[in-house]
Amino acid sequence: MRNKLNLFMLALILCCVGCSPSPEAQRQSPHIALVGLGIESSTFSPAQTHEDAFHTWEGDEIFSYYPFFSDSALLQRAQWSPTKISRAIPGGIVPPKTYESLVGKTLDLLKQNQPYDGVFLDIHGAMSVVGLDDPEGDFIERIREVVGYETLISTSMDLHGNVSWRLAENSDLITCYRLAPHEDAWESRQRALENLVDRLESEKGKPAYKAWIPVPILLPGEKTSTRIEPAKRLYAAVAPATEQEGVIDAAIWVGYAWADEPRNHAVVMAYGDDQQAVGETAEQLAEHFWNVRNEFSFVAPTGTLDECLDQAIESKKKPFFISDSGDNPTAGGAGDVTWTLTEVLKRPEFKSTSGPSLIYASIPGPELIEKAVEAGIGSKVEAHVGGIVDDRYAPPLLISGTVRAIVQGDKNAETEVVVRVGSVDVIVTKKRKPYHTEADFTRLGLNPRETDIVMVKIGYLVPELYNMQADWLLALTPGGVDQDLERLDYQRINRPMFPLDKDMEDPDLSARFVPVSGQDE
Ligand SMILES: [Zn+2]
User: Fold this and answer.
1) How far is the CA of 158 from the centre of ligand 1 (A)?
2) Residue 310: how many CB atoms within 10 A of its CB?
3) In sequence order, what DSSP letters do the residues of 386-409 get, joined into one string?
């Protein structure tokens, strides 16, 4: 009897240790939900982004999505409730049905494990939804409806996102990348998460002061790379500013130039517990931004397409990269504008197989893919490519050439075909895909390093392509993310706006203090 009782007691103790932490332990370890929704979507493109374009991670999959969770120290600092992360490569505007579906599924999962001490909200910040302004502001309000205002929300963003007053108010902590290209994307998210855990562990809770300053500047990302001045120095000033006593974090958003809402402009924020330090930090960064506004220029020399091609054909340097920037799918272009490829194939230099070698990456063309797969490698194929989504500048293009490669299984493209037309290797995809790595080319049997000219639908070159180029020009081609912002027909952004309104007066760059969430007077 005595032994039985002891075993029973032991089982009871083990169960208590294993299944539910003591109330003491529960207090020490905050309960945090992980939530994410991200896309950058252009309203100047006829493309739409539907739910099937979003990659999603649910439940425990989310721990492997974030590389920093391999650090068990961070894992052990909280009880985590991963919900749903949805991300799409940039594209066109999101229909309300897709938005409601993604938000609804995420909120349903969020409702399951309440209450929360914290929510980590991972967004891009430049989502556009048909008929809905400021989707991220809407999303965070709906998260608040679920979790209430006792919960701290830490929002992590892309520096090309937009920060409305509503988003700033509902976020207790908020930050964004400090590098473009975004080599610090994971590090920034980790900072947002660690700041949240710190505030919960220390029981300091919501920061007392959040300063928000709208800066009336709207610039394309291709003019604001932090690899070159003036963005390099501007963004380098952020980290030291956050070392001050009473300042938790600060951030500068360039904002998103290819959507037309009042929230599309640059923003500076700082927050912490010392009102003066917070206000001054935000004001200094905002003034710095405004003072260097005239120094922003394109990351590479630019030209019309013909100017770029003339120079590349003339050049002895190879590979000579040309960015087909107006239809860059990673900024929100449809990715199927045929204008550039049409112009390239018209050039006499590329008509013969002995012309300068050129790789064109890439154009979606499901009709050609189907014919090429049927005909096989080495066969002649003729079919239309592109112009299904965005035919405003040129119609679908009939190309006729030899199939050089057929590769199946890419997660974005699904099927990729290389068709040789004259001296041009055209990469045709079933679905649109950005070409950002050397392997993207070599997988298809192409050698970009030994090619005279490589044209990519991209803006600034991502690091791997940048390191490969012998020379580089950015062609100002038409499309949904036209780099020449003055060609865009803005109706709803705030005016005056630099550089659209050249002679505007200096704006008011004093700090506006956003109410602590839930304390709106
Ligand atoms: Zn970005």
Assistant:
1) 5
2) 14
3) S-SS--SSSPPEEEEEEEEEEEEE
| Residue in the structure block whose two tokens are 């990715």 | 335
327 CA distance to ligand 1 middle (Å): 16
Gap from CA of 122 to ligand 1 centroid (Å): 13
Mean pLDDT, the chain, rounded, equals 93
List the alpha helices (DSSP H) in 237-298: 238-241, 275-291
CA of 253 to the centre of ligand 1 (A): 10
State the CB neighbour count (10 A cutoff) for residue 468. Answer: 17
3-state secondary structure at position 189? helix
Residue 402: exposed, middle, or buried by beta-carbon count in 10 A (0-12, 13-18, 19+)? middle
436 Cα: distance to centroid of ligand 1 (angstroms)? 15
Q: List the one residue out of 77, 85, 93 whose CA is nearest residue 43.
A: 93
Cβ-contact 334, 390 below 8 angstroms: yes
- Residue 429 CA to ligand 1 centre (angstroms): 24
**Which among 139, 73, 76, 47 has a CA at the least distance from the CA of 102?**
139
Q: Which residue matches tokens 């790789």?
A: 359
pLDDT in tens, 334-362: 899 999 999 999 999 999 999 999 999 99
How far is the C-alpha of 125 from the C-alpha of 176, rounded, in Å?
10
Q: Using one digit for the tens of pLDDT, what is the confidence trace for 181-198?
A: 899 999 999 999 999 999
pLDDT in tens, 439-478: 999 999 999 999 999 999 999 898 899 999 999 999 999 9
Distance (Å, whole) CA 178 – CA 238: 8
Residue 84 contacts residue 36 (beta carbons within 8 Å): yes
Question: From ligand 1's centre to the CA of 123, what distance in Å?
Answer: 11
Preceding peptide of 82 cis, ω within 30°: no
Angle at the Cα of 156 (from 168 to 178), degrees rounded to 5?
Answer: 100
**Three-state DSSP class for residue 438:** helix
Cβ–Cβ under 8 Å, residues 457 and 335? yes
